[in-house]
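Worked example 3. Consider a protein that binds flavin mononucleotide.
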Amino acid sequence: MKVSDAILSRKTVRQFSDKPVDEATVRELLEISKRSPSGGNLQPWTVHVLTGEPLKEFVADVNKKLMAGVQEEPEYNVYPPELKDPYKTRRRIVGQQLYELIGVPREDTPGKLRQLAKNFSFFGAPVGMFFVLDRQMEIGQYADVGMFMQSLMLLAREKGLHTCPQEAWARWPKTVSEYLGLADHEILFCGLALGYEDEDAVINKLHSERAALDEFVTMRGF
Ligand SMILES: Cc1cc2nc3c(=O)[nH]c(=O)nc-3n(C[C@H](O)[C@H](O)[C@H](O)COP(=O)(O)O)c2cc1C
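Given these inputs, the predicted complex is written out as structure tokens:
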């Protein structure tokens, strides 16, 4: 598979089939992803991978808390509290497109919350991952971990797999930390669901928009 095909065929999948992904495949993805660049070669990533019983047990625990109305204080804001345009509009549009696609009307807040809650079962994926950093790290190292995640998401395409990166997990810092046994100096950055796409699921048909180049690129000297 060409890199461009991997990039163009990657999309966020929000409903997975239950077909398992074997350990050798996950290890291979991680083994190659670790060649991702990082400033100063810090390799500031720590990755926790769950499948099978540990995944089921963890998801059941989180969902029990969700049902009981438990909420945790997120450790960081996924988005700035006063998101500006054009970002605010882009976020609104992708949300609208997603809910329209799955037939959840704008005013159906419980319907939207039910969809959001699916994050916390990794959208049915057979593999759930967590990306963790040392709290000492700065913005640059978060970018490094993002690059690692993108490498993994593209390599997944080569294997016919799909992914969903999940900052939604930032809502459960305590539960995730306790389950993974994170130290006080570690912070959960992002989750990621990995598996095979449920090809019948309408939610996976979403094709998110991108801005035109002249909206975000300045070229000089060409
Ligand atoms: C770091 C990161 C975190 C994300 N977190 C979530 C999430 O928690 N739940 C979710 O459904 N999508 C999540 N997404 C997916 C984005 O909504 C998606 O990438 C964006 O809408 C563009 O769509 P595409 O990935 O299909 O191209 C995340 C994406 C990134 C890069």
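Take a moment to read the result before moving on. Strands lie at 46-51, 127-134, 162-166, 186-195. The chain has one domain: 3-76+120-209.
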